[in-house]
Specification:
The complex is a heterodimer. Chain A is mainly alpha-helical. Among the domains of chain A are: 106 residues; 99 residues, Winged helix-like DNA-binding domain superfamily/Winged helix DNA-binding domain (Arc Repressor Mutant, subunit A); 55 residues. Helices cover 71% and strands 0% of the residues of chain A. The longest helix of chain A is centred in the N-terminal third of the chain and has 27 residues. Chain A is elongated. By secondary structure, chain B is of the alpha+beta class. Chain B has one domain: 2-Layer Sandwich (Alpha-Beta Plaits), CATH 3.30.70.1060. In chain B, the strands form 2 sheets. A 4-stranded antiparallel β-sheet of chain B has the order 2-5-1-6, covered by helices on one side. Classes of the chains: A mainly alpha, B alpha+beta. The interface between A and B is large, with 70 and 44 residues.
C-alpha cells in the first residue's frame, strides 16, 4: 500500500476507533487528558509502523494494546514521591495482569460503558458550554483542534485553549470517570443532551460566518446523538433529541433558495426534504414515546416537528395538534420564544384574533424587545385581520430591527403588499 | 457525506441461496456495530433478480422485461446507506464486512450520494447570534 494511502487509512481508523480508544484508556488512567495523550502516542506509533508493516487486521486492538503499554511505561517513569500516581500505577499494573485476557473481549464489544463514561465526562456540568462542546467534538468526534476551529470559525489557539482549560477543570474538580448514579442521571443527561444540541444548532443556524448552515456540525451532532441512543436506549429524551435533530436536518436542503435566500417552512418544496431522515426522525420519536412517561422538552419539540413532517403539503398541517404540543412545552419551558411560537400556531389553528391577544401580551417581554420576529408575527396577524395600516407599521418596525439586508428588503416588500384590498 | 454501499450479486445470491448461518450471525453483529457507531442510516437485502422487473425506456415507449437478468456482477444483492466523514472512512468500514462464504466471491461498491450542500454564501455574515437562535426556534420559520 502506498504511504499516502496508508496514511489516509490510518486517519479513517482513527475516526472510527479514537473515541473508544480514549474511553478505554481513560478507564485505566482515570484522566481523559492523559488518556488522549496516550491514544495520540498510539496513533503516532501507527503512523510510524503501519506504512512498513501494513494496517493490522484488527487496528483497534493494536491501538489499544499500544496505548496501554504506553500507560504502563509512563506510570513506571512517574516520580516516586507522587503517592497518588504510585497507587494508580499499582492499580494499573494489577489490572494489566488480570485484564489482559479481557482486552480481546472488550475490543469485540467496542461500545461498552467506557464510551458512555467518556460522554458523561466531556459533557460534565462543571465545564463551560464552550468547553463541553470542544472537548466532546475532540474526544468523541475524533475531530482535530483545527477542524473544530474551522467549523466554529475561531482561531485554532482559542479551541486549544478551551480544550486545555476543560481538561484542567475536570482534573481540578476531581471528576470521576463514571456513569452517574440513578439519582444524578437526569441532570447529567440534560448536560449531555444540551451539548449535542448546541453542536447541532451551531450547524443548523450558524452564528458566525457567511454560511448559515454548517453541514459537518449537523452530521457530527447527529452521529453523537445516534451513538448515545444506542448506549442509553431506555432514556426517552435521548430518542427525543435524535428525533428532533433528524427531523430538522431533513429540511436542510429545502431551506435555501437558489440565491442563498432562506425559505420558510410553509413555503418549502417538501419534495426536497430528506425523506430518509424524516422516516428516521419519526421512528426515533416513536421510540421516545414508547420508552417512557410524560414527554420531555426534546420529545415535545420533535413531536411538533413531526406534525410538519407528516403533512405532505403545508395546508394539511395539524395546527391544533401543534397548539396542544406547544401548550405542553410551555409548561416545561415557559419562555417568551415558546409563547410566540404558540401564538403563531394558535393563529394558524384558530384564527388571527386569538393569536393577536397572546402576541400583544408578549409585547412588554424584555427578552423580546428589539427582536424583529415579534413585529413580523404581529404584522402578519393584523394583515389577516384587515388592519393593514397597523400591519404596515409593524413590518416597517421589523425591517428597522433586522440587521440582515435581504431580510429587510423582504419585509419592506411585505409592507408594500399590505394594501386595503387585503382586508377580508 | 452519505454513501450507498452496494453488495453485488453473485451466483449464490442469484440462485436465492441464503448465506451460511455463520455469515448471517457475523453480519448481524456487523450491522449492530454500524448502528452503534452512528454510521448506518438504512440497509436492505434484495431478492434475486428472478423476482425483479426492468422497464426499458425508448422515447415514449415503455417495455417491461421480466427477470432473471444475466451478468450477475452488475446486479445487486443488497445495499446500505451510510453517513461517514469521507470515502476513506467508508472504505475502512467496508473492509470490516465479514468474509464471504467459502467458494463465493463478493464485490462491494461504494458510491457517494449527491449532497445539496453548496449553500449560498451571499447571506448575511452579520446576523446576530440571538436573532439566529431565536429565529430557528420560531414556528413556521423552517
Amino acid at each position: 500500500m502506498p504511504a499516502a494511502e496508508t496514511r489516509r487509512a490510518i486517519e479513517a481508523v482513527w475516526r472510527i476507533e479514537s473515541a473508544r480508544l480514549i474511553a478505554g484508556l481513560a478507564r485505566l488512567v482515570r484522566d481523559v487528558g492523559v488518556a488522549e495523550e496516550l491514544a495520540q502516542e498510539a496513533l503516532v506509533a501507527a503512523l510510524e509502523q503501519w506504512p512498513e508493516s501494513g494496517v493490522p487486521d484488527n487496528p483497534g486492538a493494536w491501538l489499544m494494546a499500544t496505548g496501554k503499554h504506553r500507560a504502563v511505561d509512563r506510570l513506571r517513569r512517574a516520580e516516586v514521591h507522587d503517592r497518588k500516581t504510585l497507587e494508580l500505577g499499582r492499580e494499573l499494573e494489577l489490572r494489566g495482569e488480570t485484564e489482559s485476557r479481557d482486552l480481546e473481549a472488550e475490543i469485540d464489544d467496542p461500545f461498552d460503558d467506557d464510551l458512555l463514561r467518556l460522554i458523561f465526562t466531556t459533557c460534565h456540568p462543571v465545564l463551560s458550554t464552550d468547553g463541553r462542546v470542544a472537548l466532546t467534538l475532540r474526544l468523541l468526534g475524533g475531530l482535530t483542534t483545527k477542524e473544530i476551529a474551522s467549523a466554529y470559525l475561531v482561531p485554532e489557539s482559542t479551541v486549544a485553549q478551551r480544550i486545555v482549560r476543560a481538561k484542567r477543570t475536570l482534573t481540578a474538580a476531581n471528576v470521576p470517570f463514571e456513569v452517574p448514579e440513578r439519582d444524578e442521571l437526569g441532570e447529567r443527561l440534560a448536560s449531555v443532551l444540551e451539548a449535542i444540541y448546541l453542536i447541532f444548532n451551531e450547524g443548523y443556524a450558524a452564528t458566525a460566518g457567511d454560511d448559515w448552515m454548517r453541514p459537518e456540525l449537523i452530521e457530527e451532532a447527529l452521529r453523537l446523538g445516534r451513538i448515545l441512543a444506542e448506549l442509553l436506549p431506555s432514556e426517552p429524551e435521548v430518542h427525543g433529541l435524535v428525533a428532533l435533530m433528524e427531523l430538522q436536518a431533513s429540511r436542510s436542503r429545502a431551506r435555501t433558495g437558489s440565491h442563498g435566500e432562506r425559505i420558510l417552512l410553509l413555503d418549502q418544496d417538501r419534495s426536497r426534504w430528506d425523506w430518509l431522515l424524516v422516516g428516521r426522525g419519526l421512528v426515533a420519536l416513536e421510540r421516545a414515546k414508547r420508552t417512557g412517561g410524560a414527554l420531555g422538552p426534546y420529545t415535545l419539540q420533535a413531536a411538533i416537528a413531526a406534525c410538519h413532517a407528516r403533512a405532505t403539503v403545508a395546508a394539511d398541517t395539524d395546527w391544533e395538534g401543534i397548539v396542544a404540543l406547544y401548550d405542553a412545552l410551555g409548561q416545561l419551558m415557559p419562555t417568551p420564544v415558546v409563547e410566540l411560537n404558540r401564538a403563531v400556531a394558535i393563529g394558524m389553528a384558530f384564527g388571527p384574533e386569538a393569536a393577536l391577544e397572546l402576541v400583544d401580551s408578549l409585547r412588554c417581554e424584555p427578552a423580546l424587545s428589539g427582536y424583529h420576529l415579534l413585529p413580523v408575527v404581529r404584522g402578519d396577524l393584523l394583515d389577516k385581520l384587515g388592519r393593514t395600516d397597523e400591519a404596515r407599521s409593524e413590518f416597517q418596525r421589523a425591517a428597522s430591527l433586522t440587521e440582515n439586508t435581504g431580510e429587510r428588503a423582504a419585509l419592506l416588500e411585505r409592507m408594500a403588499a399590505c394594501s386595503p384590498r387585503n382586508g377580508t | 457525506m452519505r454513501v450507498i454501499v452496494m453488495i453485488k450479486a453473485n451466483e449464490q445470491s442469484e440462485a436465492g441461496e441464503m448465506p451460511s448461518e455463520k455469515l448471517l450471525t457475523e453480519m448481524t453483529a456487523y450491522n449492530e456495530e454500524l448502528v452503534k457507531a452512528g454510521v448506518m442510516l438504512a440497509g436492505e437485502g434484495l431478492h434475486p433478480s428472478s423476482s425483479g422487473k426492468r422497464v426499458v425506456f425508448s422515447g415514449s415507449d415503455r417495455k417491461v422485461i421480466d427477470g432473471p437478468f444475466s451478468e450477475s456482477k452488475e446486479l445487486l444483492a443488497g445495499y446500505w446507506v451510510w453517513q461517514v466523514k469521507d470515502m476513506d472512512e467508508a472504505i475502512e468500514w467496508v473492509k470490516r464486512i465479514p468474509d464471504a462464504d467459502e467458494g463465493t466471491e463478493a464485490i462491494v461498491e461504494i458510491r457517494p450520494v449527491f449532497e445539496a450542500e453548496d449553500f449560498g454564501d451571499e447571506l448575511t455574515p452579520e446576523l446576530r447570534e440571538r436573532e439566529n437562535r431565536m429565529r430557528e426556534q420560531l414556528e413556521a420559520n423552517g
